[in-house]
Amino acid sequence: MTHIDPTAAANLRTPEWYKSATRWTQLTLVENDPVKFDPDFWIDVFKRTRSNAACLSAGGYIGFYPSKVPLHYVSKYLGDTDPFGRLVDGARSLGMHVMARVDPHAIHQNAADAHPEWIAVDKNGKPRRHWAFPDVWVTCAYGDYNNVFMPEIVREITRDYDIDAIFANRWQGHGVCYCESCKTRFRDATGFDLPMTNDVDDPAWRAWSGWRRDVLTRMVIAWDKDVKAIRPHASFIPNMGGESLMEFDIGLIEKHCPFLVVDHQGRRGLEPVWFAGRNAKRMRATFHERPVVLITSIGPEEEHRWKDSVTTGAEIESWIANGVTHGMLPWVTKFNGVVPDERWVEPVAVGFEHHVKLQAMLAETSPTAEIAIIDPTTTLKNWSRDTRRQAEGDDLGFYHALIEAKLPFEFLSDEAMTAESLARYRLVILANATNLSDAQCALLQGYAARGGSLIAAHETAMRDEGGNAREAFALGSLFGVRRTALSRGPVKNTYIALSGEHPVSAGYEGAARIIGGTKLAEVETLAGTETPFISIPDFPDLPMEEVYPREEPRGAAVITRETEAGGRTVYIPWNIGGIFWEVLAADHQRLIENAVRWALGARPRVSVSGHSVLDIAARQSADTFAVLLFNLTNPMMLKGPTREFFPVGAHSVSIVMPEGRSVADVRLLISGQTANYRIADGKVEVDVPAIALMEAVEVHWSWASRKRHFGR
């Protein structure tokens, strides 16, 4: 039977087509596919996975259709075939949406001979051969190749094929290009010579980062206009990632990109499974309502790049499902149309089926949380792409600590902060937002003045938006401290001592001190604060006979304050997030969790009990509240690939009921069961018998009286 998605089919070729493009299959063809692959196999994959959208290789580096654009290299195996057109027709016959993939990052020798100015140049003045395939050349992303030649290909594909969008991969360039065009245009625009390093303190590098952002943003706009001039309903969709939000003018991207595609295809090295869903929070942090798609590769994503391979089915399912847990639309990508190993197809179908079961609820509801971690976009813009992960360590530490605490939370970009967006949260966390403008600091101060609670750590607000060091802690009065010395370190063998009884220092029975950080700032406390922990001055870690403290504890290590507006603040003047992410010390997780629960001030709206590690998301509408539970309890939680799932037993999900509402129905969407529940103390408590990979609790509210106190 032909598979046609009625929702997708209803939106075919309309400006809102993307709203029903909710499950994607991507096929990236290789040069000999025209004579090797079986298009019918792929049409069947579309059906088996219930995909309603496809992304298909069209052109750029290699054309997989009979292109007439001069110098557009077409597969030497093409003959009189049109594999791209065949796949487009097959997808459309199933009522699917179609996006054409182009890749402009390299060119063949004929194009290089005709236009040497299209080639990227390294800092030594040498044209760049491709790092993985030296027979071809790396292109300059900022000049005529992307701005003159590639638009011809974009227009040809859009004109000749029944598509909804052009999707570009590897279109942003590969670092600084030192070609004559870039040298001249950069100097004319900024007055600087191109930077020779990616040092965040180099004004030329910061100027180049801004110049590149402007050039690429203008390119997105130009390609989008080219597409719309031919097919008004269609769009240009650039392949993005969370870091891409640091690289473009956000307002223009919001206008021209109806949905966002995150190219984080799987885990590499030591990465937890929750990195998948983190992408959703990061994109929502800037674009609150924009649909976000997560690309999943069927193979391992390690540095060694086995792209034409298959990882475990459990890993594929996990990556897809964690993205879905946080509202991302699933997309699977396969390189090479020939399929010698079909073990990936069923896990993709199962992963997509999870989305099918949740799709109605996801469409009806929006993410909600009481806690937000500030995504420090202003800070990260001052770091290069290669070093940005280092700057994110503090945020990753807080992220993992909140997961261990079973507390749902969201991100909020400091560039998207407004009084209204801050007001969505009871607690805002600045794990290490080093760079903040005066206006951003004023927004946070206003939030606290209206009763909001805040936690900040390490070097938050130490620099302005341009990276310049401030003389004083810009948020000092808010947290009740005065900074007396800038951060120093890394240092070793540091400790903090418990000081009196306080909820933030609870749970350390038997300990007088715990380990401290490796990067330390010094502060003085102001009136109206408490110090649950104080610093022990660091002392030698060798020789072993010298390992003892020389001084009594002095100096605040954790400062708490209750504000006149009814909120609470916590300031930790050391790198607790970063060192927890590096060391995973249980005492630091407890300290972060204690600080968060104390700063919230009241019981959380969502509580989950049970023996497990869960990544939790909450969603709501006027009549529905949903809690999604992703099971991280696995020996491969921090390093893939996952071999198998380790189901966890019974859990209880407690949700504070809205005033004037009663429970109409409670369901477990993945298992398909009607849930047992109880109502007590203004909460509905739902039993979840077991969780294999994921479960979703959906509560429907009604305005009926609350006389019934026990569910089925």
TrEMBL record:
InterPro entries: Class_I_gatase-like, Divisome_Glycosyl_Hydrolase, GH, GHL6. Gene3D superfamilies: 3.40.50.880, Glycosidases. CDD domains: A4_beta-galactosidase_middle_domain. It comes from the Bacteria. Pfam families: GHL6. Signal peptide: none annotated. This is ThuA-like domain-containing protein.
